[in-house]
Amino acid sequence: MTPLEELPLRPELRGRTPYGAPQLAVRYALNTNENPHPLPEALLADLQVALAEAARVLNRYPDRDATALRTDLAAYLSRTGGASVEPAQVWAANGSNEVLQQVLQAFGGAGRTALGFTPSYSMHPIISAGTGAGWVDGHRRDDFTIDPQAAVAQVRAVQPDVTFVTSPNNPTGTAVELETIAALYEACTGVLVVDEAYTEFARTGTPSALTLLPGRPRLLVSRTMSKAFGMAGLRLGYLAADPAVVDALQLVRLPYHLSALTQAAARAALAHTEQLLATVEAVKAQRDRIVAALPAMGLTSVPSDANFVLFGHFADSAAAWQALLDRDVLVRDVGLPGWLRVTAGTPEETDAFLTALGEVAPTHRLGD
Length: 368
Ligand code: PMP
What we know:
Elements (H helix, E strand, L loop, with lengths): L27 E2 L11 H16 L10 H14 L9 E4 L1 H13 L5 E5 L5 H8 L3 E5 L9 H11 L3 E5 L11 H10 L3 E5 L23 E6 L12 E4 L2 H8 L9 H11 L2 H5 L1 H15 L6 E2 L6 E5 L4 H9 L3 E2 L8 E5 L3 H18 L4
Parallel strand pairs: 1-11, 3-4, 3-5, 5-6, 6-7
Antiparallel strand pairs: 2-8, 7-8, 9-10, 10-12
Helix pairs in contact: 1-8, 2-8, 3-4, 5-6, 11-12
Bound molecules: 4'-deoxy-4'-aminopyridoxal-5'-phosphate.
The site of 4'-deoxy-4'-aminopyridoxal-5'-phosphate has 13 residues, from helix 3.
């Protein structure tokens, strides 16, 4: 095989590593924040019908504007997000990763700058680089929260074209106050993307940034069906914003980017929203169970509004990660010294994780 360096690759991509959450054949895969609960039988039956109907017209291109799906997504957001959202405000693509890529293609790109408060979702800088934008790490406090004043000052100084706020944040789990988001919006002149991939898991009373949309045309709220909806394999992400933002994204999206099968399956899933989201409370209970069990093992965690927990401290997180893997439990080493991240799933998964961690902690936790 030709070494990568011998290809005429763009210089800014040289030496980079691709997104690489390991996909290993383990008994307990707790590393990519999926929802492990099986899809309801009634949905599986409806999917067969919906996909068979869509298959009949696969000789034709799909609805380029995904109008029916966007109408269903707007209805879901209006029902649950605390704000009324029109279909013209919604855009959908193959996972929120693609939505974010389109946002960066439209509002970032060569000669422009994106900023995100790291540690945060690793794909934000990767997609920024892939679409040509420079990247600036935003500051967080040592406890991983965002200091609103420092964040506003930094955004004023950098003037990013695209600013990311992940709420609840990945990998730390913490939701960001709406006041902070509103202040960042005022501080920036570019677009502000609030990545709400995990918002359905937030603790009760945590409002969505959707409520901030009226009167803020540069505010974009991205969501996904990969997490709470338990449909990671579907690849359906979406965004709510001013209709002008949707017009802007249409300038960069590939024609017919969302297959007829994806649109049909997503609509079938949305018709079962209540059943799909019924697992959210159960997942939150497992998250809280993990958090509660850690102190007895001499470990700690970061408060989580998501379906995962960042836990530590370890003397060597890579070694602790391997020790858990040796016990058939795959968690995520997010590259934060001392910490690991685990996805909360079924009670059986929590049992296995806590048992393995109980064995691993005495050897690997950071000494007093
Ligand atoms: N945003 C965040 C914060 C995420 O953690 C993820 C997935 N890990 C995504 C976006 C992308 O999810 P998807 O492309 O499956 O919608």
